[in-house]
Amino acid sequence: MTDHFSLLVPGAKADGKVEVFAPYDCSVIATVDTGGSDAVETALTTADALYRDKKNWLTAEQRIQVLNKTADIMQSRFDELAIEAAREGGKPLVDSKIEVARAIDGIKNCIEVLRTEHGEEIPMQKNAASMNRLAFTTHEPIGVVVAVSAFNHPLNLAVHQIGPAIAAGCPVIIKPAGDTPLSCFRLISILREAGLPDAWCQGMLTSGLDVAAQLVTDKRVGFFSFIGSAGVGWMLRSKLAPGTRCALEHGGVAPVIVAEDADLDDAIPLLAKAGFYHAGQVCVSVQRIYAHASIARELAERIAEAGKKMKIGDPTLPDTDIGPLIRQAETDRIDEWVQDAVNKGAELISGGSKLSDSTYEATVLFNAPDNAVISCNEVFGPVIQVYSYDNIDDAITRANALDVSFQAAVFSKNIDTCMYAFKHLNGSAIMVNDHTAFRVDWMPFAGLKHSGHGVGGIPHTFKDMQIEKMMVIRSRSL
User: Fold this and answer.
1) What is the pLDDT of residue 81?
2) Which has fewest Cβ within 10 Å: 376, 415, 445, 448?
3) Which of 150, 31, 87 is nearest to 324 (CA)?
């Protein structure tokens, strides 16, 4: 018997039901209620009423207690949460366990930023106009938070959106990805078990795109948090009500420069893991590597060998390295892109074939032309392209040529080469002798250009979900 998940919107009625499939074998693992226009209105009305009732806002002490207990409950259900994430999202169990550990740490990070939050004194009495005055700032929740999440990290992304909202004191409504709603719904249930009143965190799948747009674009929304495709994110941003602030996190095509003096023994395991991890379904996974001509072929062949050693299969098994694509149509698309590159002149070093309807070989392409689809778009699959270069300026120009910009990397033993690449590569973060997918959850994480808007990372999102409120006191005694 499959699990069933009801709408997590107090007082709302479902208008339908959808099935959630395990991407590896397409088995039905759960059914989830969907909400229509009436459910969205109920959720927004409830959240807005909470925000307007300042006398009954949750105190910082209450929020800390809820988050502390949430982290404890999540830790006690660690294996259950990891299996759920692996089963519904396809990320191998070994990596899903890392995701759960990060999610628990993220909840603790929300407590830390809440404990250390403070305002500041604004200088006064510095000129005639400011005499006899004292000024300082405090912080208040920005309003109702609406979050739309992505499939590839179903638990940790929900923590990044829900956790800071609760810490900031904002009522939050989240619409998880339709492919992977279960981890998010379990997180909401745990928060409620930990003492969070139901109305402060609501969750729902909407019955259509128009209903989702109704939720996002309502004038009662104070902050919109989006993680997903650029096309959808930018479209929704264009329709936000006046005054609604937002943060968008989209994809990139993370470039890596590997200089001729790079330590390949150190670099190859990092690059292979970051390119094939979660079948490449990560917004900053290694996709384009620009390697000096003297080492490029060796690098490509050694990454290919590393990929061949990775076990592809059932993500719930402990020895699986690469799981399925989220949907079977994605496997077909990736194969089309790989064949397009080969037909246009790329050399296929390894892989290049579907293993099943849901899995694809770890694939390495060498010197794909710039006009290949895969050279100028985010593949979001287990494919790494290696391009040779003679001059680092040419490599940087090619790396910067696309309209996306997120994280990038450079491998070299020469500090001047690393600093040169840091200065000239486009990106919000440049990793030195590390892969592009490195992240800890408290660091800034920002897509630039077409890759996003605003800055992610728990402390940064927490700040975005608050307003700074100043008090100015005038007293003759000052």
Assistant:
1) 97
2) 415
3) 87
